[in-house]
Amino acid sequence: MTETVLSGTGLEKRFGGTVALAGVDLSIRRGETIAIMGPSGSGKSTLLHCLAGIMRPDRGEVTLLGQRVDTQSEAQRSRLRRSRFGFLFQFGQLLPELTAEENVALPLLLDGTPKPKALPPARSWFGPLGLAGLERRRPGELSGGEAQRVALARALVTGPAVVFADEPTGALDQANGAETMRILVEATKGQDSCLVLVTHDASVAAHCDRKVEVRDGRLVVDAGPGAAKPELPQRAGAW
Ligand SMILES: Nc1ncnc2c1ncn2[C@@H]1O[C@H](COP(=O)(O)OP(=O)(O)OP(=O)(O)O)[C@@H](O)[C@H]1O
């Protein structure tokens, strides 16, 4: 049986009177790419934020390689996010005053790697991601697709256990979106990282090994080659 890298068990999260997660169980195996789908407001981003240690669930457990994440302090989770996780959002969120290569090197720099040591691994991503020659450009001098690939390189540069991507192609046209997804999946699999992707778009989700659907804070569909049996709502009348 392939090793479980990341696992959420019994995850519950409320915001005031709103139930965002109502008891979600989800395990991600080594090298697996998984798409979290579902309607707007169903809890997808909340699930991603809980799994990534950005947010603490009210109930339930999150473990990375068997170690509890949700019980760690904010400072510990922040360190964990920098060293073991990579993040890619809809708008790459590059720092405009840094060059492309400095943006890619940022997670290493923030973790204390000196700049001369951080830049070579950052630069090594430019060729494979079709960005050769753009190392010294600033984000304002890149196309949307190029900027998103720089953000992707930044997500991968630490060799993270898991890459989390929230609507990573939402701001791109279809061709650029498909190309970004192809590169994202290839690059994460190439270094044996997992990918946890949130998307509305079935054509984006189709790039992943496995698709799960969240409705009203519950996992209602779990499908794909590596999927276990469907995880249906445990309580009748919950949706
Ligand atoms: N910080 C917050 N404060 C209050 N309510 C929140 C907060 N974050 C999320 N919610 C609510 O929790 C529910 C789930 O939100 P979430 O962002 O996880 O949904 P989503 O499926 O990612 O939606 P979308 O596809 O529109 O991004 C929604 O009802 C949302 O309004």
UniProtKB/TrEMBL annotation:
PROSITE patterns per UniProt: ABC_TRANSPORTER_1, ABC_TRANSPORTER_2
SUPFAM superfamilies to which the protein is assigned, alphabetical: P-loop containing nucleoside triphosphate hydrolases
A Pfam match: ABC_tran
Keyword ATP-binding part of the UniProt annotation: yes
UniProt domain ABC transporter: residue ranges: 6-239
Gene Ontology MF annotations: ATP binding; ATP hydrolysis activity; transmembrane transporter activity
InterPro entries registered for this protein in UniProt: AAA+_ATPase, ABC_transporter-like_ATP-bd, ABC_transporter-like_CS, ABC_transpr_LolD-like, MacB-like_ATP-bd, P-loop_NTPase
Protein's UniProt name: Putative ABC transport system ATP-binding protein
Species whose genome carries this gene: Stackebrandtia albiflava
High-level lineage: Bacteria, Bacillati, Actinomycetota, Actinomycetes, Glycomycetales
